[in-house]
Specification:
By secondary structure, the protein is α/β, with parallel strands linked by helices. It contains twelve helices and 14 strands. The model has no long low-confidence stretch (mean pLDDT about 95). It binds pyridoxal-5'-phosphate (PLP).
Amino acid sequence: MKIVYTDNNATTRVADEVIQEMLPYFGEFYGNPSSMHTFGDQTAKKIKEARQRVADLIHADPEEVVFTSCGTESDNSAVYSAINACPDKKHIITSNVEHPAINNLFKLLKRTRGYRVTFVPVDKKGLLNLDVLYKSLSDDTALVSLMWANNETGVLFPIAEIAQKIREKGILFHTDAVQAAGKVPIDVRTSGVDMLSLSGHKIHAPKGVGVLYIRKGVKFSPFFIGGHQEKGRRGGTENSVSIIGLGKAAELAKAHLPVMDTQVRALRDYLQNQLLEKIPSCSVNGDLEKRLPNTLSIGFDAVEGESILLMLDREGICASSGSACTSGSLDPSHVLMAMEVPFKSAHGSIRFSLSHYNTREEMDHIIAALVPVIERLRAMSPFWKDGKVV
Ligand SMILES: *Cc1c(COP(=O)(O)O)cnc(C)c1O
């Protein structure tokens, strides 16, 4: 059966061009980039090129790019570095819709290290309450960490606007841009963030490689203590193959930005509008405008997201209920709860996340499959009667 893959916010297919770029470094060129010989230097040169390509994607200086093992490591090392930089400050700020890599870390710091944590709320459209954010800034605040784009709904936070306010107060600002990269333009110069996280496997590079951008002049204390790799900012022999792949993926992501904004957006909008038209009692989660072009989170009243996914899976369609990281628990996602999405539709919410590999035919396949799936599930649902929610 042909697979229709619309779970790109969970992970992406490694691009063929990326595989081609990596292959020689799996086999022939296995030198350690830190070695003193020409053989190792070949790897070092290629890593340098990858660093430049990643820098180009986010308009950074290559020296500001540190390679890590994943988005989660980038998030964790940014947060620990920030709190180590100002040990006397005991207040940290984030939102209540972050990825677990930030959300669970902030909860841990609250529980075990005595930090006062402000979880800034979002409104019903998933937009950040800026009033609460700005009022919570204080002399005791060590760090603000806010995601650029939400992995479940695709909702965008106004990072440039926020960063300016936070920098005026001299507080460190980190953003998790894992979902934003390759989908919307990122410019670290104009957005003015101090640190920014990326992950390879969300932009068609392999799993197990990430990036932490650290603005020049920001004091950084490493999370991994070891050798002098990454200018002492991250010990451990470089994952050269994956880094080289990530470099190529970053180059492709930059070239594909216009495609995201036109072709992928049009496919997403087509899927969204067809579903809204053909299926009663369903609604889109999140702001329709301030949203990634590839993401559609949509709730169907009186049915269960997990059941929808299982039935779509039988049609070869890969989608997700909220976040891959929270699947397996029966609670509605913390993101939809934070947005006060009504229980009956939060439970029936699923996420389609597209890439430039998707086609119009695939969208038609999803639409044709989903309409009868919802009808069948509602026919069995105790919460649905005579074409209405009860
Ligand atoms: C996937 C994701 C991460 C984690 O990245 P990994 O490389 O899987 O550790 C962090 N933040 C967001 C918003 C994500 O979507």
